[in-house]
Amino acid sequence: MRIATWNVNSIRSRIDRVEAFLQRHDIDVLALQETKAREDQLPLMGLQSLGYDVAAAGINQWNGVALISRVGIEDIQVGFDGMPGWGEPLAAEARAIGATCGGVRIWSLYVPNGRKIDDPHYHYKLDWLSRLRDAARPWLGEDTALVGDWNIAPQDEDVFDMAAYANDTHVTPPEREAFAAFLDEGYVDVVRPHTPGPDVFTYWDYYRQRAIRNRGMRIDFILGSPSLAERVKGAFIDRDERMNEPGASDHAPVVVDLAG
DNA sequence: ATGGTAGAGTGTCTA
Question: pTM (2 decimals)?
């Protein structure tokens, strides 16, 4: 089974590229972030004609998450118990949708950006991650994948220029500690072992021609529970999808192959 | 510190 995650930056403006991506790489399950569409705005026809079912959550033009699957979508959940995600002053957004697809529990996650380190959204980001970790702890014993845009670059090697991000979000010690806490609990970065070398970026800002200059960051991750990690046969970052301008999302898709 | 680009949808907000 082949699963992927992609911050698509509007599913409506890029539906042709989504469908091409699914076909080009023979994807079974695709988790999307920043769909920027309500459920009633989703472009479903083409996806359904390709054999995919869609589960999505989105309530405004900035966020939104979705799961696209051709191996079933069961037990769909939006958010989870005890976790903010709906209706709170800083959180009137859809940032997590989970479902069981082909026997694997997959969560499409769009971690809060944090904006600036003196912004309330920065603290909301850390709190959101803490609650996600609490929610995800019981899932360690199942085949679970936590995938999406984490808005954290966990290592210096994950940033094109650390000096450019001094005193900025995505690289602060508390954010890195929040990410590392998932690994400490037993979740595994299942992509890095299969992408050796320096080309690990998954995101290149639209500004300043950062894609063609390869000034990017690694902020999109697929974390697997131990049993899921044992099934991983390979992984890759579809850099070409990002580099094929114009019309690209600012993020590249990340793909993982599972045995069985 | 600021600004650069892109997408939502017309006012800016978000990233």
Answer: 0.96
